[in-house]
Amino acid sequence: MEHQHSQSTPFRAHRVIASLNREQVDYLDKLGKDAQFSSGIKLSRTQILAAMVNALKRLNLTGEGVITAEQFEQRIVDAMMSRLQRSQRNGVERHPREGR
User: CA torsion, points 33, 4, 74, 81, in degrees to nearest 10?
Assistant: First the structure.
């Protein structure tokens, strides 16, 4: 299992078993292959999932009041859209592919 960490942060990996449907697994694999074909470095499923968790942490999301996974998914999308709108108002540039 591959892991990335910053040099200043102690890192101890924990195994997490996740049940995903075929479409979700295929999407993770597509992300990894997209990275490989565009940069030469393939991202593993573990690296992608860890990046997603880190991104959620940066959005300061909590599970408070969440009843369903669908509700939490919408909370994530709302937080991303809100952050994007704030960035656009402040003139912050995005990666060219993020604007799609």
Answer: -90
Please give the Cα distance from 75 to 37 (Å, whole number): 32
Which tokens go with 58? 């940066």
Residue 32: exposed, middle, or buried by beta-carbon count in 10 A (0-12, 13-18, 19+)? middle
Please choose, from the candidates 48, 64, 49, 52, the residue with its C-alpha nearest in 3D space to the C-alpha of residue 16: 49
Q: 94 with 100: CB under 8 angstroms?
A: no
The first and second tokens of residue 17, run together, are 């078993």
Give the model confidence (pLDDT) of 20-55 as tens digits: 999 999 999 999 999 999 999 999 999 999 999 999
pTM here is 0.73
